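call fold(seq) -> tokens
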Amino acid sequence: MNTVTRVEKYQLKLTDKQKTIIQSWISACKQLYNKCIDKFNTDNKYFNKGYKTIKSTLFNEIYGKNKKPAPYDTLTDVKPKIKFLV
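ret:
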């Protein structure tokens, strides 16, 4: 594996409104992540169903027909360790 990952750190100057929006997205991701942990602890074979089936089932359980509080791609790429400095 001969790849190099370059990382740069930028300081963002966000408005209070932008901070609130991003914090709500992080909260939605945590909620989804915690739901996945609960499902795994209840039935670890639950995740053998396939990615799309699990995703739609979890979204329906959490949000129903309501609008999702974060962009779809943010919710589908849930990472266990999110570090975000606001």
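Residues 25 and 72 are 10 Å apart (CA to CA).
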